Each structure stands twice: as structure tokens, then as C-alpha cells.
Amino acid sequence: SARTRILGTAVALLAVTSAGLTTGSSAEAAAPDGRGAAGQGDPYFPLSGNGGYTTGHYDLGLAYDPATQRLDGTETITARATQQLTRFDLDLSGLTVRSVRVNGRTARWTREGQELVITPGKPLRKGQSFRVDVSYGGIPQDVTDPDGSPDGWIQTDDGAFVAGEPQGAMSWFAADNHPLDKASYSFTITVPAGYTAVANGVLTSQRTKGGKTTFRWCQAQPMAAYLATATIGKFDVQRYTTASGIPVYNAVDPREAADAAPALARIPAILDWESGIFGSYPFSAAGAIVDHAPDVGYALETQTRPLYDSAPDVDTVVHEIAHQWFGDSVSLTSWQDIWLNEGFATYAEWLWEEQHGGRSAQATFDAYYARPAASSLWAFPTADPGEGANIFDSPVYTRGAMTLQKLRTAVGDTDFLTILKTWARGHRYGNGTTAQFTALSEKVSGKNLDGLFHTWLYTAGKPAQP
Ligand code: ARG
Ligand code: ZN
């Protein structure tokens, strides 16, 4: 099955030929002609990411003019070849490429759908570190997800809402666009004076000159491309450091400020509470971007600084901050494991409610379990939603959280909390799979949990027992 394929030791990679898709090469074996694969082999998003190299750092230089909606980018990626490479790909959708250099030398390139195919002047050796410079520009077009929602660079009435899950990063920079390949980032973003450009991590400088403001941001810990943002608008900015020493930067659209204030005021309390439960906060900055983007319809856990399309409630902030551990620090290996992000962030909401004077997580579970067998909640298995169009649906979020409640009652509170903490610590800044999580749960508890996970993760339909 697709599941076995991605969880196997050799992650199958897709090799794309001009004739179409052929599967077969493994992560280590180079295609005979030295081409890096066009995708990471993800069953839901086969062309996301690329083969043959891993990235270490992205340095993104961006200039955006909200009046013309034009974006200009100069980008430098440092990477390392994992095979001999006569050519390799980056993911880029739309925009016009002006030039590509590899190790400072002009390289040939072509565009094939979302693949920017690069042929360096000299093949890269396996193990070789290399640098890619891409210069590009144009009016970015957001990407339409399989479920019809927009992601990527989404224009607003005063700038852009920039959220890339699962595929949208490629609408604004060239990337190895799969969570398997995480890297550090720096951003230099220039916008007309009066606008604010907010990215991930720490603001290292802000300068206004000649009617333009340049913001520099630095994200030192590894980040998946989909979690990068460069959201632009006319924002009120709030900065402070929490009592536990985390610098907070909030950028808020004034039209949302009054409604957002109560939830934003809880950020330090949420960071402390979640650090107590999941282990120390993985990043060196926190905050929120509250935009006014009525057509978007979702929030995203952009690393360090979640992005909201409108004023969030406390539950939503609890959810997005929980993703900093589950999704951002511990990232997916395959998109079909998305419950490891969404089920966990949803469970954080249930636990917050339980510990802040609301109903217990068990009561929340019971309320959902009461849903009829025909409910969409039971439509497909939590740990294999079947296709990219289903990854943000209730069997992933709600049934995923129900699975964690089942685990909690099976192993007891102490082991349950140990499992969550050990998961977050053991895969910190890396990736995880459902199989690794279920194995950890059995190891910590000393129990055979095959039946529980089989029913709750891998079977569609309403389970016979609550
Ligand atoms: N991960 C986000 C959240 O639940 C949801 C993103 C939805 N994205 C989308 N393109 N529909 O916090
Ligand atoms: Zn979520």
C-alpha cells in the first residue's frame, strides 16, 4: 500500500521523465543519468520536494509593492548533493525566472509545470555542498489545494497573506517543498514605508530609507518550506518578552485588533502551559500575525508566529501554538500522517479546556462519539485520509484527537504525558511517522496497543466501542 511504501526504510522517489511519471529509484541510488528526482515520493503530493540533495539554508531577498502586486526575489540556497547530480529540481509555480547560478556559475534551467529544472555547468559530486542563486519576479498566483482552498501568496486589500500548507511555498520562492527537507531561513523584505513585512523567527533589523522599509528576519531552527511566511500589510505591532524569556512579536490588522486582543493577551499563558505539558518551547521567538483576509478561511501555524485570517479565539491560538511542537518542530514524513499535526493540536484544545474550567477531554470525546455512523467524522481512516483533498477534514482533526484520548485512557495519564513529551523531544527539529508514534506508545506503556491503533487510526467507519 502507499502507507507501507512511505514508511519503508527506502522512501521511494519518483523519477520524472519527459514521457511522464515512472517510479522506482530509491533515496540513495542515483538515476543512471544523474538526475535528481522531481518529487520526494509523497503519495498525496508526488511532485512536492525533490530528490538528490538536501537543503541547509534559504536566504530570501524579497521586494513587494502592494499597489502593483509585484514580487521580486533574489534567493540563495545552500544544499548538499546526496547523489551525483547532472541536473536537479526546485519547486516553483508561476513567476518568471531571470537567472540561475550554481556555485556562482550561470546554470541552464527550464520550467516544467511546478519543476524548475536546473542543469549546473559541471555535475555535482555525491556529498558535495553547493549554492544555488535564483533571481525571479512577477505577480504571484496562489496555489489551489486539492480541497479547493487557496494557499501560498494570497493577495489582500493591503498586502499579502502568505501561508503555504501544503503546497503554496512554491508560489513565492523556489524550494525543496516537502517537510522532509527542513532548513534554516533568513529573510530580507522590502516594502513601501507604512507597510510591515512579517516573517518567521527573530526580527534582526528594520530600516526605512527613500520611502521604503526593509525588514530582516532570521529563523535559525530548521523549518519546513510550507511554514515560511512573509506576510505584508498595514499592521499594529506589539513587542514584549514573556516572563519565561521568549520574545513575542505580534502584528495585527487594526480592523481585527479589538476582537483579537483577549486571545492575544493569553499568548504568554499558553506558551507556559504548553511548555509544561509538551516540554520546553522549541523556538527562540513567538507571536501572532492577525490579518484581515476574509476570503482565506483558515489559520496556519507558520513557524514561531502563527498566521490568522481574522481575530482568533483562545482555542485557535492554543491550537496553532501547539503546532509549534507538533508539526513545526516534529514534522511530517508524509502528508498522509497529517493527524500527527492536527490530531495533536486539536487534543491540545481539549486539554486546555479541561484544565481551564471547561469540560473534560473525555466529555468532549463522548460528545463526538455520539455522532451518527453516517457522520463525515467516520468517513475515512485518521492515519490515511486517502488523498490530499481530505487532509484538513474531521477524521484527521477530531478523530485524531479522539485517538489520543483513547490512548490516554488505555495507558493512564502519567504514561500518556510521558509519550507526548518523549515524542516532542525525540523528534525535535526533525520528522516523525505514525509507526514511530505507535511504537513509542507501546514502549512507554509496555502495552500492546495494536487493536486500539488499528481501530482508531487505520479503519474507516464508526468504532463499535467508544
Ligand atoms: N494547519 C492549519 C491548522 O489547522 C490548517 C491549514 C489549512 N490549509 C488549507 N490550505 N486549507 O491549523
Ligand atoms: Zn491545525
UniProtKB/TrEMBL annotation:
Keywords carried by this UniProt record: Hydrolase, Metal-binding, Metalloprotease, Protease, Zinc
Cofactor: Zn(2+)
Domain called Aminopeptidase N-like N-terminal: residue spans: 56-227
E.C. code: 3.4.11.2
Catalytic activity: Release of an N-terminal amino acid, Xaa-|-Yaa- from a peptide, amide or arylamide. Xaa is preferably Ala, but may be most amino acids including Pro (slow action). When a terminal hydrophobic residue is followed by a prolyl residue, the two may be released as an intact Xaa-Pro dipeptide
Cited SUPFAM superfamilies: Leukotriene A4 hydrolase N-terminal domain, Metalloproteases ('zincins'), catalytic domain
Family: Belongs to the peptidase M1 family.
Protein known as: Aminopeptidase N
Source species of the chain: Actinacidiphila paucisporea
Upper lineage: Bacteria, Bacillati, Actinomycetota, Actinomycetes, Kitasatosporales
